[in-house]
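INFO batch 0412 | record 1 of 1 | parsing
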Amino acid sequence: MIKVSDSAKEQVEKLLGEQKIEGDSFIRVGVKGGGCSGLTYVMDFDSALKDDDKVFEDKGVKIVVDKKSFLYLVGTELNYSGGLNGKGFEFVNPNASRTCGCGESFSI
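INFO prediction complete | emitting tokens
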């Protein structure tokens, strides 16, 4: 399962409103090769489910992950930080053994 923090929920709702995204839209999260630690997180809005997708909902936020990425993201929490040191979504991934300084890539 992938969890959503309260701050991430608020930011997702704000973005959905600003971008006027309606209907059965959801957040698609995943991983791809690259970054200084080997794997990079990806996240975007989507509305089309694929056959191998896993669907989760936490705090009213629907999150979809492809089967391959789920192996790397199981137990992860999506968070949002609006502090002075950086602003944006971050993945709190208990499976990551190493992360880069910016937090956008990791390795297992």
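INFO post-check: The chain has a mean pLDDT of 83.
INFO record closed
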